[in-house]
Amino acid sequence: MAESRSIFQFKQFQLAHGNPGLKISTEACLFGAWISPGNAQHGLDIGTGCGLLAHMLCQKSPILQIEALEIIPEVTELAEQNAEQGPFKKQIKVILGDIKSWTTNHPYDLILCNPPFFTKHLAASDSSKQAAIHADYLSPEDLAFAIQQHLTDSGQFAVLYPPYEMGIFLQALEKRGLFANQIADIIPKPGAKVLRQMLLGSRQKMVVSTEQIHIRDEMGNYHLDFQELLKPYYLIFP
Is the overall model pTM greater than 0.85, yes or no? Predict the structure, then answer.
């Protein structure tokens, strides 16, 4: 397994990623950079993987304590190693568990999730990869229910999905008394189709604000908006 593992170096931390689990993606990094933790103190990262979102959010907020939940034992071990060796080990607690059956004695004022999204997809050859990409393990309906169960009355949640799956998730939110407050489209380059959508929501219904974020510009360089968001994290942006 270890032969396909690699290290992703950020400005303030580094993460081992890959096998087991999925490698860190550009859109996941953009998602972590886009989320604002505000004054949140108790966070829940559902399906933490290597711990990317937990680390990115803890870099933004020293008052944030995150419980990073992961269903795959081998990936949980990887996330634990990353947290223990990183600068935010006092803020991140990695937990092996399934959000569909997991219980806790306190709610969270910030819930994060970069969920699995391929439905009715051919089985992946690697079991940890399969769990990371197949919605059979955590459907949009399952995720909406989990957020309803664990979010404080004034808390916020942030989710990343492709457009089709985001539509299913939005329908599931309505059934649970949850609402989208902000939606940002991730677009690879001008004129391209939307790759992913980032959603920030809560229990409060309000007018949804929307925006578009391009990864690259017409010349193929990283877009200025992308650079601004990732500047605190990416070594290539001074």
Answer: yes
